[in-house]
């Protein structure tokens, strides 16, 4: 369920696009110049689950920056400590990848977005750095 912080975060990003680039440069170590195109994608994703009805997932923001090349980003804004944030982040990222994926020669090709969480408050449980490690069987 979306809260007031999520709505405010989406509004700020959509209305103040010129401020996104410097933050992306800082957070992800990019070198965008500021004249790149930012294209926002829908925040609502429907997860198809076996033996269950579809579940709706709502990300805080999901966009592509088109410069010399195209790169996907996913940002979450978190106001309270949440020990499930990494799990939700992975679920959102996987859904974003699937939504924009395609099957080529009987192979599913997906691209995960560059993701980050903006924590609005600092608590002793607020992580300084987090990550998700993916491993695939058979050395794919």
Describe the structure.
By secondary structure, the chain is of the alpha+beta class. It is built from three helices and eight strands. The strands form three sheets. A four-stranded mixed sheet has the order 1-4-5-8, with helices on both faces. It has a two-stranded antiparallel sheet with strand order 2-3. A hairpin with a 3-residue loop joins strand 4 and strand 5 (70-78).
Overall average pLDDT: 80
Write the H/E string, N to C.
Answer: HHEEEEEHEEE
Low-confidence stretches: none
Q: Radius of gyration, rounded? A: 16 Å
Structural class: alpha+beta
Summarize this structure as a short list of keywords or feature phrases.
four-stranded mixed sheet
Architecture blueprint of SSEs:
Blueprint: H1 4-15, H2 20-28, E1 37-40, E2 44-47, E3 55-58, E4 61-66, E5 70-78, H3 85-99, E6 102-104, E7 107-109, E8 114-119
Parallel strand pairs: 5-8
Antiparallel strand pairs: 1-4, 2-3, 4-5, 6-7
Give a quick precis of the structure.
This protein is α+β, with helices and mostly antiparallel strands.
């Amino acid at each position: 369920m979306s809260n007031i912080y999520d709505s405010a975060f989406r509004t700020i990003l959509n209305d103040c696009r010129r401020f996104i680039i410097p933050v992306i440069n800082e957070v992800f170590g990019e070198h965008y110049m500021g004249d790149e195109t930012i294209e926002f994608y829908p925040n609502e994703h429907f997860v198809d689950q076996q033996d269950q009805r579809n579940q709706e997932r709502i990300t805080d923001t999901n966009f592509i920056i088109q410069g010399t090349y195209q790169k996907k980003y996913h940002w979450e804004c978190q106001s309270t400590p949440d020990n499930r944030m990494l799990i939700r982040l992975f679920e959102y990222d996987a859904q974003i990848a699937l939504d924009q994926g395609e099957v080529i020669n009987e192979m599913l090709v997906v691209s995960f977005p560059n993701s980050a969480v903006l924590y609005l408050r600092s608590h002793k449980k607020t992580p300084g750095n987090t990550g998700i490690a993916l491993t695939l069987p058979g050395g794919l």
